[in-house]
Design brief:
alpha/beta, 5-stranded mixed sheet, 5 strands
């Protein structure tokens, strides 16, 4: 559908909300709205009273040691956090600040994608819808691998759109760069190959875009950029590949309809119930049609991902955020459909709902320890009290001449490494199996020769499975750490000495 046909389809005014603006007007309005939203989210981060969650603390510890790979993920997230730390210091707000910035930039890129495929009006609504998706609002309050992944995925999508439109070697080079950098962000960038292949199958223009050596050039550039991580994995026994395989969980030929239902429900929650319902209905109606090549392109960059994860959820499990790479193209598609159909009421209700969720997620962390309604939010309670937990460990260390701290879980290790900072007493993790199952089992395993006595700290009672490897075990009084109203975290500790070896 052309821009002229679109204007006729949505009413005499040419826009669902008042008279249309010029392209420049929509661009400036988009910039203003995204800028205000970014300012709100950055201020919310600095007002937040919650600590880093486990994944965030783990990524921060990775950032202390520059490398081309880490146990479960490629290195880009660690590089970004290190850059932010060098820029504004070590703090929860600074560690997280890259996330809202990257999601804002992603929204701006989606404006460019939608404007190229449809018009600036569609670009505006796409950018605002995406920036306020419930999943994006939640992710903007944390720093995860999804932030750089989605930014680079959207950059890849823009370069692919331009490559299809212009058949240019320059855009093939840029496409390869985006894919290569995306692979350094998260393994899910490999979906780009699937999506491009699907588009090439159904579109003659897409097939032509890959000719003339353009596909080879893009592929070689992507592989070259990703090769340092491949070599790192080869040198360390392929931990990332093994972790990814473990996450997939394909261990038995059973189906899991409940896991599938949970995955689909998560999409309604993360993408927004109205937008996801519109997307599901409109994509079903458009699938197999060739009357609008632009919508076909967008569906090729969303439906294959969702279909793959539906199968994954049915066979094992799939976390809701695993579908995040489908959201950029899906948002453009939904925005174009709703504008064409003149869905004013649905757009207004959806936007109001999105802004309400964004406001709650932005404000809640500032009152997480002082206002009862926010105290009960699970995502807040899990990120409270880690600084106090580190203080409790420091106090225990001051009461004895310990040579090392021993921790039995990845979660507690990550939090203590962040909140204890440059502790004089080194922190190690108990390695339960010959093969490491997380980053700290690979980099900080407790071994013979570690200075003793050892202070074992745990969120469970001192485990007999660890204590039996030592000649002397002294239980220490548990420490109650206040979290929110009527809730505490219990820290258990015991003093160990006379390590007999982990295999005895």
């Amino acid at each position: 559908m052309s821009a002229h046909e679109t204007s006729k389809a949505i009413g005499p005014s040419g826009a669902p909300f008042g008279p249309p603006l010029s392209d420049r007007g929509y661009a400036l309005l988009t910039l203003l709205c995204l800028g205000l939203l970014l300012a709100f989210r950055l201020l919310a981060l600095y007002a937040s009273k919650v600590d880093l969650v486990m994944d965030e603390a783990q990524y921060w510890t990775w950032s202390r040691d520059f490398d081309f790979g880490y146990f479960s993920k490629p290195p880009l997230i660690a590089w970004i956090i290190r850059a932010m730390s060098e820029t504004c210091g070590v703090s929860e707000a600074c560690t997280r600040a890259a996330s809202p910035i990257l999601y804002t930039l992603t929204s701006g890129l989606l404006f460019a994608v939608a404007r190229t495929l449809f018009n600036a009006r569609t670009g505006f609504w796409t950018a605002i819808f995406f920036a306020t998706l419930p999943g994006v609002s939640y992710a903007s309050a944390l720093i995860t691998t999804d932030a750089p992944l989605i930014f680079l995925w959207t950059l890849m999508l823009l370069f692919w759109v331009m490559l299809v439109k212009r058949q240019s070697m320059g855009f093939a080079i840029l496409l390869g760069l985006a894919i290569g950098m995306g692979l350094l962000a998260k393994q899910a960038m490999v979906y780009a190959v699937l999506c491009i292949a699907c588009h090439a199958i159904v579109s003659r223009e897409a097939r032509q875009a890959l000719l003339g050596g353009r596909a080879i050039v893009a592929g070689l550039i992507a592989i070259a950029l990703f090769s340092p991580n491949i070599m790192w994995n080869a040198e360390h026994g392929w931990p990332t590949a093994k972790h990814t395989g473990d996450n997939m969980g394909w261990r038995a030929p059973y189906v899991h309809p409940l896991a599938l239902a949970e995955f689909i429900a998560a999409q309604f929650a993360l993408f927004g119930p109205i937008l996801f319902a519109v997307f599901a209905r409109a994509s079903f109606r458009h699938a197999g049609r060739q009357d609008d090549p632009n919508k076909t392109l967008l569906l090729c960059f969303s439906l294959p991902i969702l279909a793959t994860l539906v199968v994954q959820a049915l066979l094992s499990r799939a976390h809701g955020n695993w579908a995040a790479t489908a959201y950029p193209a899906a948002t453009v598609f939904v925005s174009a459909v709703m504008l064409e159909q003149g869905r004013r009421v649905l757009m207004a209700i959806s936007m109001a709902l999105h802004f309400l969720v964004a406001a709650i997620i932005g404000i809640a962390p500032a009152f997480a320890r002082s206002w009862t309604p926010f105290e009960q939010l699970q995502f807040l309670r899990s990120s409270i009290g880690w600084d106090e937990t580190a203080d409790a460990v420091r106090k225990l260390l001051s009461e004895g001449a310990y040579g090392a701290v021993l921790v039995d879980t990845r979660d507690l290790t990550a939090e203590l490494l962040y909140y204890m900072g440059e502790a004089k007493t080194p922190i190690y993790v108990w390695k339960r199996r010959p093969e490491p199952h997380h980053h700290y089992e690979m980099t900080r395993p407790f071994v013979a020769g570690t200075p003793e006595p050892v202070l074992l700290v745990s969120l469970r009672a001192c485990r007999k499975g660890i204590a039996r490897h030592f000649d002397s075990v002294t239980l220490l009084p548990p420490v109650e750490i206040p979290l929110v109203r009527n809730q505490t975290r219990t820290l258990h500790a015991c003093a160990l000495s006379g390590f007999r070896g982990a295999d005895k």
